[in-house]
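Proteins fold reproducibly. Look at a sample protein:
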Amino acid sequence: MANKDSGIGTANRRGNENKMEDLEAVNLAADWSDISQGLRKDLGHQLHSQWIRPIQLGGFCKDTGTLDLYLPTDFSANWVQDRFADRLSLAWKIARSEVRHVRIAVHPGRRKLPEMTLSGSAYGNGPSAANDGSSSSMIAVAAGTIGEQGFTSSVGLDPSLTFGAFVTGETNVLGCNAAQRMAATETPQFSPLYLKAATGQGKTHLLHAIGHAYLSSHPRARIFYCSAERFMVEFVQALKQNQMMEFKARLRSFDLLLVDDIQFIIGKASAQEELLYTIDALLAEGKRLVFAADRAPQALDGVEPRLLSRLSMGLVADIAPADIELRRKILESKLTRFAPLEVPGDVIEFLARTITRNVRELVGGLNKLIAYAQLTGQTVSLQLAEEQLTDILSANRRRITIDEIQRTVCQFYRIDRSEMSSKRRARAVVRPRQVAMYLSKVLTPRSYPEIGRKFGGRDHSTVIHAVRLIEDLRTRDADMDGDVRSLLRQLES
């Protein structure tokens, strides 16, 4: 009996230790989120996206005070070590005093890309070499990039990023439909496809989804998926090893070329020229090309005009920031992963309304909240969300003012701004005024009396009546609900 009790006690201790380790990992991740946001402000969007965002947290040794930070390639690890090591070390010491050393390295669990041994035996001589899943299929592995989870398939595609897992709405339906058309069996009407979206809005997901769908309909196809950074690394390696002919031949042997974050190739004249010739060669053979970037082709500074014309000659599909309806759908689609854990509807609504910058942060916020609740045994609630997601919420909170609401509503209904404070009772004026009061209560922290004062000194009871009336009309009148949804999109974008 004593042995049994001892075993139970040991199991409980281990369980508690595991929970503490998991909680420590959550806290480290929260600190890293704060540090990363600070570096983004200091370094600017481009440097941060290229070098800081790919960093993943490793282990933290309390005995030595050493924290490991991992990057996907030797090239990026050396670059960050040379240029940002001191800054990263200082930021961590400020955020967490027990961190005394920061060690930057390539993730030890990731497979290294093979060297540029571009012989026929290494890269295969026939179509079957690319995707048969055998160890001799080196062309796709060498061409693939290392994503957040390392190599996830023989061509570097993340198996979770499919069209089936992509949630669509008004803001991203064009990009999704264009991506599906590019992956279809029939020849697409346009090529290349250029996906333009801000960070975290789904363009990388669509690149992976195109690869999966194309492989499904063309099982023996050769696919090259990479980031612009990876393209640059391989280009430089080929130059150093005097293997440019092999590099060119390999690039032009693919049936589908997928290049992410093309904005990072700007300013590299020789690489731009090689990409230009590759695009021309693939298009001449009817091959398919897809590029993704955080800006339109015309906004790519330092790009050779000939390359610029090739990037924009097909279809440029915008993926706009997710509106509130799409954010709700995305959160609800993720809830099935956490069953039977219950997430109240007011928490989903709060996250959808508050985390508006990008989808990646939205899903990350939900994951962090649920992880914290599971590890601490607490119930998911609105209060817990407000307490544990302060870093994400503060970064996303854009203060919408009543003046901004009034201005937007007046433009929408084509009435003069003075009507918001006037005493006129005409229906064409009263209803927009009531909508503006309703939006002021929904989108700002102002009280009923404060809102009333901004609408010509009206009594708080007038504001309460307006809010309740519009709420009721939205359930009975599709046109009114459509107007309010449209105004919400404008104000929250």
